[in-house]
Design goal:
The protein is α+β, with helices and mostly antiparallel strands and about 100 residues long. Helices cover about 35% and strands about 25% of the residues. It has a 3-stranded antiparallel beta sheet. A two-stranded antiparallel ribbon has the order 4-5. The longest helix is centred in the C-terminal third of the chain and has 14 residues. The protein is globular, with a radius of gyration of 14 Å.
Length: about 100
């Protein structure tokens, strides 16, 4: 969802923490750290927000503002954020499963 709905660079979602999901009025936003250590706030689609919230609840991360939204899970325990290569592999896997054209991934 993050890649499809925000156009983020490959490493930016890996830096997201739970506290980076917020609301600007009624719109859910993600506060990315982008190239040059600048901050960029992006409004996200309600479907994306729902997917993130479900992910956080499922992985017991919702109440930890400093937790990474997308941690690598090692032996069932959330750890460091996913690496760029891990994101690429997951993006490739789900792009193919969604039936997207090969040029997308």
């Amino acid at each position: 969802h993050i890649y499809f709905y925000t156009g983020a660079r490959c490493t930016e979602p890996g830096r997201l923490k739970v506290k980076d999901l917020s609301f600007d009025r009624e719109y859910a936003t993600l506060n990315f750290t982008v190239k040059g250590n600048k901050r960029n706030t992006v409004a996200i689609h309600p479907e994306c927000q729902s997917a993130i919230r479900n992910h956080l609840e499922f992985n017991n991360l919702a109440n930890n503002p400093e937790a990474h939204i997308f941690p690598a899970i090692i032996n069932g325990v959330p750890g460091k954020p996913l690496s760029r290569s891990q994101f690429y592999r997951l993006f490739d896997k789900y792009s193919r499963a969604a039936g997207l054209p090969e040029g997308v991934y």
